[in-house]
Amino acid sequence: MHLDDVVDAIYLTIQKRNELPDDLLLLIGEPNTLSYGQLQEEISKAIYNKKWNTYQIPKPLATIGAWIKQNIPFMEKGFIQPWMIPMADDNYELDISKAQKYLDWQPQKNLKDTISKWIDLLKREPLVWYDVNKLHFSGKVKEHD
Questions:
Q1: Which terminus of the chain is more exposed, N or C, with fewer CB under 10 A?
Q2: 27-64: per-residue pLDDT in tens?
Q3: pTM
Q4: CA-to-CA distance for 115 and 112, rounded, in angstroms?
């Protein structure tokens, strides 16, 4: 969820605090979320204008691989942690109807539309993109069609 949408929801909550029920629990987020597979397809389309070939690895093997990546001293640590593997195909749909009803709020931005902006920056200024996202760049910048 975009930070601007989070700030808007918090602002509206503060503005309407006297009108809201005392025990109100609100969920905020994008009502339609992308699965990891959909996310990967959107990113590959934005970078290469085609679908990446992917291969499914059994979760126990992926967990072992993630553990090795994190614990072998001569290997660079990866982002994926072993505890993430069992949740890799989870998809969380949120019911934001209470936030819509009580705050008159819904997100104005969505991940699917934001991906192209991220990739545009990556293509335009790759070293800045790596730095902003706190990623280690190891190699040459490649131009892609």
A1: C
A2: 999 988 888 788 888 999 898 888 888 888 899 999 99
A3: 0.66
A4: 6
